[in-house]
Specification:
Blueprint lengths: L9 H11 L3 E4 L8 H8 L3 E5 L25 H14 L9 H6 L3 H46 L2 E4 L2 H6 L10 E3 L15
Parallel strand pairs: 1-2, 2-3, 3-4
Helix pairs in contact: 1-2, 3-5
């Protein structure tokens, strides 16, 4: 839940800034790094560019797929706090799933069933835990969302590789002068002169 504020990366990051003295930093991702890097570079008056590649700045799972494997079309603190509860209490979705095919292929059926029931237990305990800690989870999600908005206010240029991704972030009221759309990919028209 707090992977957006990894303090252990700050010292190496500050050493890197000290050694290289960059005029511009271009981030492609901050997952498992830290949004605090943005604050430190901003305080040093270093220009910063961020290319967004996914939904990490909006979504704890970064793919807008809930921990119950549902596509998430809209974000609310309540919805995000359910995912957070699942992540904190039962681990990644892959830790709590199993399949009939895996069972049939497994040599030790008893151990497989034991692990499957253990996974179900943890998934259900996670659901129960949510009701006891709902306010705590809501606060964590709210704080994370505020930190992400703060990042966008300190970045000098935001690059969106697709119009779709740009549209998904339109509700954040980002200063339009800081945004550019830069399509990744190849202009296929340059190949029209070649015969197949």
């Amino acid at each position: 839940s707090n992977t957006y504020q990894e303090k252990k990366v700050l010292k190496p990051f500050l050493n890197l800034l000290k050694d290289f003295k960059p005029d511009v930093i271009h981030y492609h991702h901050l997952m498992h790094l830290s949004v605090i890097m943005i604050d430190k570079a901003s305080a040093l008056k270093i220009s910063q560019v961020l290319t967004l590649h996914d939904f990490w700045f909006q979504c704890l799972t970064h793919q807008r797929i809930t921990t119950s494997c549902q596509l998430c079309a809209s974000f609310t603190a309540d919805k995000c706090s359910h995912c957070l509860s699942d992540i904190l209490n039962s681990g990644p979705l892959t830790d709590t799933t199993f399949s009939l095919q895996s069972f049939l292929n497994d040599q030790n059926k008893i151990d497989y069933l034991h692990n499957a029931f253990k996974k179900l237990y943890h998934r259900n305990i996670s659901k129960l835990s949510y009701f006891y800690k709902k306010n705590e989870y809501l606060n964590i999600v709210t704080n994370r969302n505020e930190a992400m908005k703060e990042v966008f206010s300190k970045i000098d240029l935001l690059i969106f590789p697709t119009k779709f991704l740009f549209n998904q972030f339109s509700d954040l009221n980002i200063d339009q002068s800081k945004i550019t759309l830069s399509s990744d990919g190849i202009n296929t028209e340059i190949f029209n002169k070649f015969k197949r």
